[in-house]
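Lecture 7, part 2: worked example. A protein chain together with nicotinamide-adenine-dinucleotide.
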Amino acid sequence: MLVKDRFFIGGAWVAPAARESIDVHNAGNGEVMGRVPAGTAKDVDAAVRAAREAFAAWSETPATERAAFLDKISAGLKARADELARTIAQEVGMPLKMASRIQVGLPIANFANYAKLVRDFSFENRVGNSVVVREPVGVVAAITPWNYPLHQITLKVAPALAAGCTVVLKPSEVAPFNAFVLAEVVESCGLPKGVFNLVTGDGQTAGEALVRHAGVDMISFTGSTRAGKRISELAAQDVKRVALELGGKSASIILDDADFATAVKSTVNGCYLNSGQTCTALTRMLVPQSRYDEAAKIASEVAKGFTVGDPLAETTKLGPLSSKAQLERVRNYIKKGVEEGAELVAGGPDTPEGVPAGGYYVKPTVFGRVRNNMTIAQEEIFGPVLSIIPYRDEEEAVRIANDTIYGLAGAVWSGSDERAQRVARRIRAGQVDVNGGAFNMNAPFGGFKQSGHGREAGVYGLEEFLEYKSLQLKG
Ligand code: NAD
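Predicted complex, written out as structure tokens:
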């Protein structure tokens, strides 16, 4: 049992102001795996004050010194990689081997990458008679979700620290233990006190207290569109800068000349990654009407190959969902899909066979002949549920892909790279894979429309945490 009863504030482990705690459940069996303190406005205030106090010195620390700390944090996480992977596999439900590569490998790489990026970054440019200076925004409130918990924390904390900002992190209450490991690593690296602070708690109490706090300059939020809207409203009261990474309902367009075996398989994989709890999940697969049967058959076969089970078991390809609430939500969406007349090609709302009791397991599900105005094609399900939507021609495919309130990601498949790229350029989304192009950690990541605004990753993520200042010189 992992029990945490302190926050990391001002370089020390500090007792919370109140006694309430939050139970954290093991996604694989539903048991309580530990608990963390439920932070209040008082705890948040202490953390923000510590961050404020640390800001002046940290913002003036040379970038090369800040970079050296980031390298140390990367090494510190690496030293605890196995423990982190096991913790996240249980908090979130992602199969262990994959969690080790993605959930832990990416954060280790990203801390080191930001050390490199900030060493190479030019903080001053000359424009005519002006010197344009890049300065850190100030105190950053980082509020993060549970699906890729440490990765999402890293995409805020690493560039914010690199930029010279100080941070108060409020991680997800569903998967908070990885954030405590990060705080321990930060402590062991000797980062100046107050530069990084950790407070846990729920969104309404700790999260909103952080967003409202007058000592916070910027809120960097990743999570649901619902919470993003609420945060924007609150932050508007004193015109805080806000960056939002929100939900998605991404389309994979398979054009008539594509290699169907590869395209369908990759789309199903992209939909089921992390049990569908991925903001960029390719949840709508658009296929030509004339080749619908072929696509549905491949998708059904691929889905059936996803062995559902305990995230710690070697044979598991699809772990559980992260929480009971998430399980109910996804099951209800599957029922809704059936009610609205979509064709159930694979899976369904029942519990899969042979899974550990108490865990939050759902069958890998494929719906066929989905119309884009159905609930399952419009709302973010956040589970392993794929909708196959037939289209008549390329024009209609693009229209359907863009017929969503979201604009986070997408994919296009064609026998011609040039044609695939042409169609990809017409998709209103922040990131579009062209014929299975690989993930690039230095490319900007973020959304159009209700998927948010602002960009994370690479140098774009660093610039989020910087202000411009012009010094007008005389001559
Ligand atoms: P969530 O919005 O419920 O919670 C995210 C975080 O915000 C948590 O730390 C929570 O405590 C906090 N929070 C909730 N309400 C708040 C409020 N009113 N004020 C301040 N803080 C508040 O989201 P979730 O269920 O943890 O994560 C799933 C969602 O995140 C999905 O919609 C998914 O698409 C999205 N997501 C987006 C990205 C991206 O980069 N675009 C990445 C991962 C997840």
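The first helix runs from residue 41 to 60. Residues 79 and 324 are 32 Å apart (CA to CA). Keep this in mind for problem set question 3.
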